[in-house]
């Protein structure tokens, strides 16, 4: 019988901080108007609209909106059927509108907190400037565009004592929190391998040249959209959605989905930084992420003991009845009637001494092999705080899940579990995969000093330079 691991110091501190979380959260109707948290929303279309509406539903007051695109111009949104009078400006008519978050943060002293729902290349600047003004931050994943930025955000969050949260929403949901408890309790024994996959990208990648310049639409502040990144002319092939595939703005399929899918095992195994990262890709270029890739992280140990090989696969799609770039068939083929049953139902698999677990972050009908692992293992106690509204994948569009957890952290001082002290190192690890892709070689990683020991040429990718006027340390 395996001895259950003792909690790490990091987990002890996190558990202590949130032990009473569920007792502090009040519904919006129970809060007095003068107690409402004042929010400045940075990025209010697409995911920004979801984040803004969710914190509003959670009881916060939206006092400022910031976006480089005028919400009333339907040409600037992927959602072409927005009804007249139903823009974010109409939903929050008392909120002051900005196109530059630097101005909003500098002048709106009444703001308590901000949501950051911009393209990745603005995450660091918006979050850092807000924290330095003493404002709490909810930032979409990954919290930064570069590895150094993730480290700085985690450091400054601790220094400024603000409440932070990364928007990997399922972290607040029941499936991930229960799976962490099961794995920590030893349902698989010592875990030796993790395999995680996604069908992304669902936007263009592998571009060899920048698209042809076009006039920027009326109502779009393109210079502000570019912000700290190298300047490129406007093209609808870049904004509002396809920026994810360009290295100057996004982090590709890994950056988009890694902080969601890799989250549960990274947390459950209490992983820190890998010692090395290898990569394979198809179609990657100097300016764009690849069409598909495989990343191999080597972690020296876990909370369960022993090293862990963690593999990431993107571009996992069915073609002529075969899934491209999928984990080895020997790990799954005999357990499911078709490949669809595993690659559309789940998004990762853990391999342990006792067997395997097929996990999906938005469901709880996981599969254990052998089957007896899931039926005979004594149910461990719930040791991780649960969040109202976080019963499924934690999306929380009704004001529940991660948004309630963050708003509660602001009110009570008890940190949300995906705060920057935790999500910063996790973002570093995810982004290390992109470093290996862009270098085209194995990365021997010195996490303490943020140095690729075998690749001095990695320095400008680890810490990127900023466009003139956007310098920030």
At a glance:
This protein is α/β, with parallel strands linked by helices and 473 residues long.
List strands and helices in order, with pairings.
Blueprint: H1 9-18, H2 21-24, E1 38-42, H3 47-57, E2 61-66, H4 88-91, E3 96-98, H5 101-107, E4 113-116, H6 123-132, E5 136-140, H7 147-160, E6 164-167, H8 174-185, E7 191-197, H9 222-226, H10 252-261, H11 263-268, E8 276-282, E9 292-299, E10 308-314, E11 318-319, E12 322-323, H12 339-343, E13 348-352, E14 356-359, E15 367-369, H13 372-376, H14 401-412, H15 420-439, E16 443-446, E17 451-452, H16 459-462
Parallel strand pairs: 1-2, 1-4, 2-3, 4-5, 5-6, 7-10
Antiparallel strand pairs: 7-13, 8-9, 8-16, 9-10, 11-12, 13-14, 14-15, 16-17
Task: Give a description of the structure.
The chain is an alpha/beta fold and 473 residues long. It folds into two domains: 20-167, Rossmann fold (3-Layer(aba) Sandwich), CATH 3.40.50; 174-229 and 236-387 and 427-462, Dihydrodipicolinate Reductase, domain 2. The protein is 29% helix and 16% strand. The chain is built from 16 helices and 17 strands. It has helices at 9-18, 21-24, 47-57, 88-91, 101-107, 123-132, 147-160, 174-185, 222-226, 252-261, 263-268, 339-343, 372-376, 401-412, 420-439, 459-462; strands spanning 38-42, 61-66, 96-98, 113-116, 136-140, 164-167, 191-197, 276-282, 292-299, 308-314, 318-319, 322-323, 348-352, 356-359, 367-369, 443-446, 451-452. Strands 15-14-13-7-10-9-8-16-17 form a nine-stranded mixed β-sheet. Strand 1 (38-42), helix 3 (47-57) and strand 2 (61-66) form a beta-alpha-beta unit. It is globular. The chain starts with 8 loop residues before the first helix and ends in an 11-residue tail after the last helix. The model is unreliable at 1-33 and 392-399 (pLDDT under 50).
